[in-house]
Amino acid sequence: MKPAPTLSTAFLQPAGQALPAPLLELRKQRGAALVDMPLPTRKTENWKYSSKRLKLTEEMAISLPTTGKAGSALAVPGYKVVFTNGVMIPEASEYPDLDDISIQRFGELSEAQARDLAERLDSTLDMKTVQFAGLNTARFEDGLVIRLNPNAVLDQPLFIINEVTADASGSAFPRIYVDAGANSQITLVEEYISSGQEPVMVNTVTEFTLAEGANVTNIRLCMDGENVQHIGATGVRQQRNSRFESHCMGFGGPLRRHDLQVRLEEQGAECKLNGVVVTQGTQHYDNHTTIEHIAANCDSEETYRNIATDKSHAVFNGRIHIHQDAQKSNANMNNKNLLLTTGAEIDTKPELEIYADDVKCAHGATIGQLDEESLFYLVSRGIPRREANVLLTMAFINELVVQIPVEAVRETVHTRLNQFFDQAFQEV
Fold this sequence. Notes:
Blueprint: H1 21-33, E1 79-84, E2 87-88, E3 101-105, H2 111-120, H3 133-139, E4 144-148, E5 158-166, E6 170-172, E7 175-180, E8 185-196, E9 200-210, E10 215-222, E11 228-238, E12 243-251, E13 255-264, E14 270-279, E15 284-293, E16 299-308, E17 313-322, E18 330-339, E19 345-354, E20 360-368, H4 372-380, H5 385-401, H6 407-424
Parallel strand pairs: 1-5, 4-7, 5-8, 6-9, 7-9, 8-10, 9-11, 10-12, 11-13, 12-14, 13-15, 14-16, 15-17, 16-18, 17-19, 18-20
Antiparallel strand pairs: 1-2, 3-4
Helix pairs in contact: 1-2, 1-3, 4-5
């Protein structure tokens, strides 16, 4: 019998050392735990559709240098922090200097602050199901800690621009930790972009802890190039009456994988998860979401839309878990999918696991194609067939796009969608 593939020891070599001792110790512990880590295969349930896309070469284990600029696709209207190949670039960043909001690089932390952070990192994620989050912890060279004091309000969105310069093969490990104090508010935009043509891996982890009454909006815009394997994880822990809103906008590549895990730990917590994915050519995008209703009287709403054309592949796996004590939970999940060609593939698996008896829960998924009657109606009214296709396809996802609360991101998404439509609906 052929032995199961394991993570190469090249990926566990020591990274940069410019970090406080508690974070270096945490990295060392995570690295030791990953020795002989099995790589996912088709028999790995949560990677069954994506494992064959994972290509981790020895060259890819090398940390990418922090030189070069990819250039943000966004005209950033608010504050920004720029990462190049996983390391923050202070001279390119412009973030708020406010007494009640702290933004620090990992390397700037005191030993006491770093010890506190080391105890918190990975606490929002189920590390058994998010295999590569541990690799990020073992390899990050830098990171960002954002702390909001109670009642602090960030007046403009904060953009985290993660640039990857793929002039040589390698990997980058961006890391973000957000600690939102009681009744604080922040909108955080994560933008992932790249330049260069060499095969690289980006392994990202972003974590949020929301204290009582905190209100956090997270927008994740994945626009890496065709040479970038992107494996990301987002973890969220919510306390009483807090609200978390997520908007994940994804454009396909050789491998795109995002795990989003939310824990509603105290009464009155609520979350709203929106996602849009488009794939073309031979691209692949895999979204896995989990919402844990742990406390009573919590609400969750989840809506994801996928569009696939050519021979591309989109995957959605959404799981809602209602724990025994989570009475009066209100949970709704909806996933709709649109196939534009017969060669494209979409796999969807909505899951609802309920152990409480006084709840309101619903989930559903559909996969279909553009309605020929609607197309005929539009064409019969003088609209060219290509424009009719674009109108119907845009209508399929526009209800989620218009909900993105930052105009600059909406404009960027529309621009990328128009590029997608230009290729998907070429004039005959």
